[in-house]
Design goal:
CATH topology of the domain at 148-279: Rossmann fold
CATH class of the domain at 148-279: Alpha Beta
CATH architecture of the domain at 148-279: 3-Layer(aba) Sandwich
Radius of gyration: 19 Å
Helix content: 40-55%
Number of helices: 11
Length: about 300
Amino acid sequence: MGGPDSPGELKMFLSRMFKDPAILPYSKPVRHLLSYIISRSRYKKSWKKYQMIGGTPLVRSTCHTARALQALLGTSYAVKYAFSYSSPFIQDTLYDFKSEGISEIIAIPLYPQSSFTTTSSVKADIKKVADKDPFFKITVQEEFYAHPDFVAFWIFNIKKHLQEHGIENPTLVFSAHSIPEYYVLKGDTYPTGIINSAALIAEKLGYHYEAAFQSGMKRGAWIGPDVREHMKTMAEEGIDDLVIVPISFVHENLETMYDLDHELIPYAKEVLGIKNISRVKLPEADLLFVSMLTDLVLKS
């Protein structure tokens, strides 16, 4: 989605996001009105969260991933990155390719589990450009959560986390960003992708696991179970050794570093009394992850 680096950039980020029909499924006038209201009412509060985590590392991490992918692919390919709601934008990056005479493009939305709210939004932005300009021949990669290297990426990093923290028999809590139930009723397969993704990883590790959803908005119905409520149930059942795995993300961002680290984990410790709880961090330009991207490109 992107990473704003100032209050003004954040206001524009929120404005662009809530104008997106993939985020708010309303008519254009309604979206633009809501975008205006939400972006101006939320950006100051949201910016304080960014300040608490020292700014989002998402842009830097994405850049490092692109460089690592370029190194593995070699000079036969040109690798660029783009965002939906902050610079560099998808449209601008596509035209950068055109300025270099490159028409055959493989786009990889960095969402492991496809959703109308994420992958479909990227596809729509690409389609706007491709429909207007016959120069482009663009292939869009589908979800990749079942790719063996993606599964191996999580297994390696979970094992590393357990070893570093001396954890022997945890319950893995796979946490994914929630989406409105409206989209699931319209056929969005995202919840199924999350559940399948968690199962592929946990079953190879042999640990008990749960899947839950985070960061849903207060208004409207969002898919669950909500991770807070689910952890409350686990605490009541005496489960006291939890490791959170942010399964829907590939880079550290506000939802991992603030929602999980600054809100969820302190809530679990201080309110629910769960003493042993930690989170698996997302490494930058991890070799297994970049190898998976390389394989997706070469097979596309």
